[in-house]
Amino acid sequence: MATVDDLKDVLKEALERQGSLSEVKAKIRTEVFKALDDQTNPPPQLNDMNLLLNELIKEYLLYNNYRYTASVLAAESGMSDNQTVDREFITNQLNVDITGNYDIPILYSIAEYFKHGRLLKHQQIDTE
Predict the structure, then answer these.
(1) By CB atoms within 10 Å of each CB, which of 37, 47, 78, 98 scores lowest?
(2) Which positions ≥6 away from 47 have C-beta within 8 Å?
């Protein structure tokens, strides 16, 4: 007869195999954060630089399918989940030329520039 611990282990293994365990954990963290969030102290107004940085981070998170982490970032910073800043506006503000790199997050191009002194070309992400 299986014990409760055995059932927990089997359930955990099944969720890990399906790839949904990390998603469930992230969702629980998001909901706990929302429940504990003190609504009497709203997040501070975003200044221009913080808005740009948050948007760079959010674009990176969404590109890598970290949707729940992006949701927590939006909630903590006062951004809405569906609020986005135009990429052209961001690149103009940061003086970055990403012509032809519309499918790669801007943050990758910035990192590549500082790593190798060049901007990324289409689909050239170095993951090493």
Answers:
(1) 47
(2) none
